[in-house]
Amino acid sequence: MLRNLPCMETLIVETPLPQHTIDFLGTLSSLYYLCLGLVDGIHDGNTPQHYGAAFSTENGRFSALSQLYFDVRRWTDADLVLTAMRRPLVSLGVEVREGESDLPADEQFLACSRMIDTISRHVCRSELTYLHLYDPFEDATHVATNLQGFFSLTSLEELRLRIPHTTSIDDTWLAQAATTWPALRALSIQSKTQTTLLGLIPLVRRCPNLVELDVSAHWKPFDVRLLGDIPKNIAITQIKTWDVVIDDDVLAIFRCLVTMFPMLDELQNQPDLDEDDQELVNWRKLQSYLTNTVVGS
What we know:
Elements: E1 10-12, H1 19-25, E2 33-38, E3 42-44, E4 47-49, E5 67-72, H2 75-84, E6 91-96, H3 105-120, E7 130-134, E8 158-162, H4 171-180, E9 186-189, H5 201-206, E10 212-215, E11 218-219, E12 238-240, E13 245-246, H6 250-260, E14 266-268, H7 278-291
Parallel strand pairs: 1-2, 2-5, 5-6, 6-7, 7-8, 8-9, 9-10, 11-13, 12-14
Antiparallel strand pairs: 3-4
Helix pairs in contact: 2-3, 6-7
């Protein structure tokens, strides 16, 4: 059926494709959007092979492709695909299927590190505006050292991460992110970080287009005079909370938040804790302050 569509521009497929089909897709000069289900290793007898070669851009293959999204069982497969795919992509999304990786934790972590390094040196690094990386594996005993590689992606407008490497992200990293990506519209880090509320100040100051914020953090109050007369962000009305620790001085935290985000009126992702847990109590108290605040009061 695909061979009858030589002018195909977009393709979304949820099931794995055989290698010969991917080979054919590479010949379509009109294909610019490709969203695949599982990109998996295949076997020829007892010899494991992978789709990496099928995604090769040699001899003009995938000449129009600018948006690529796919799932893998392990980061090593993703690295193979991206190493072969030498196109200046503007959007890239890679997800590891939950429960399907056969790599030990240490190897999975290192494979993700190598894949991040591949992205940081990829031909798309100055063109990429959207990046989404998802891995259900979490292990706080590992601390990444290569997250600086993301800053080679100088045109990012949307970054979505759920990978164990984010445990090394702190306020300094957020400050560099704000400087490197002034056009940032969405920042979502759905795993543990070392950031605080102070780390959000550079984002408010340098990223005027920011409309979505989703960063786990330790929320403790700061002196709101540190904000000075910087423009406030009036676009953000909701903040998702992942692994957020909220200090007991909830009212002071509330004042810090609404000083940066005057239209903020909702926290999302209530923590799954016991009813009498102090963190849950603080979360609900902060939500109550936001819900019952009249703008400008």
